[in-house]
């Protein structure tokens, strides 16, 4: 009887350990703050490359969110600016919005964009190019940008959890079988 309890306890511990290791397929990537210099203060209209997210993704991307701030450690404000991810408008700061009119002591204005189903196909190549365009005088200041991806691929720990569960079912079924 005591040996049977030890087996059950060991099986429960194994399942708990596997469950703790199982995580969703989440990939997070970050770009540093971005600021334009004096050379582009009066240049408009202007389009500039901000940077590129490079990531490796296994399986299909089921959701993707880009977040960041208008304003950064240099300045908590920005001029009117459009932010694009692979040609899709992901953020916009109007001259009349808080992101452009904050005082220098105000915190930067946060933004977030969740890619739709059709736009997720743009991310399957493992890269997201970010660019901006501005229509007026002024600096463009963006805080660090974060791209969060969720994949539909099960992690190895999830597969181990499934196998451990099936083995446990088989073991309990065998244990219940009458001895001849």
UniProtKB/TrEMBL annotation:
Presence of the UniProt keyword Signal in the record: yes
- Coiled-coil segments on the chain, per record: none
Pfam families listed in its UniProt record: PEP-CTERM
- Key word Signal present: yes
Q: Which InterPro entries match?
A: Ice-binding_C
* Signal peptide positions on this chain: 1-24
Keyword field: Signal
- Residues forming the Ice-binding protein C-terminal domain are 152-177
State the protein's name. Ice-binding protein C-terminal domain-containing protein
Q: What is the source species?
A: Pseudorhodoferax aquiterrae
């Amino acid at each position: 009887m005591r040996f049977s309890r030890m087996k059950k306890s060991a099986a429960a511990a194994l399942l708990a350990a596997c469950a703790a290791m199982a995580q969703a397929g989440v990939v997070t990537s970050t770009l540093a703050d971005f600021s334009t210099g004096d050379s582009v203060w009066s240049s408009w209209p202007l389009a500039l490359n901000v940077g590129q997210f490079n990531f490796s993704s296994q399986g299909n991307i089921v959701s993707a969110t880009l977040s960041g701030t208008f304003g950064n450690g240099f300045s908590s404000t920005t001029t009117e600016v459009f932010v694009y991810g692979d040609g899709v408008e992901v953020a916009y700061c109007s001259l009349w919005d808080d992101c452009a009119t904050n005082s220098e002591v105000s915190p930067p204005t946060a933004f977030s964009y969740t890619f739709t189903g059709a736009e997720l196909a743009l991310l399957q190549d493992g890269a997201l190019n970010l660019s901006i365009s501005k229509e007026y005088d002024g600096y463009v200041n963006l805080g660090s940008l974060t791209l969060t991806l969720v994949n539909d691929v099960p992690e190895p720990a999830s597969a181990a959890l499934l196998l451990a569960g099936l083995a446990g079912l088989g073991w309990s079924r065998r244990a219940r079988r009458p001895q001849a």
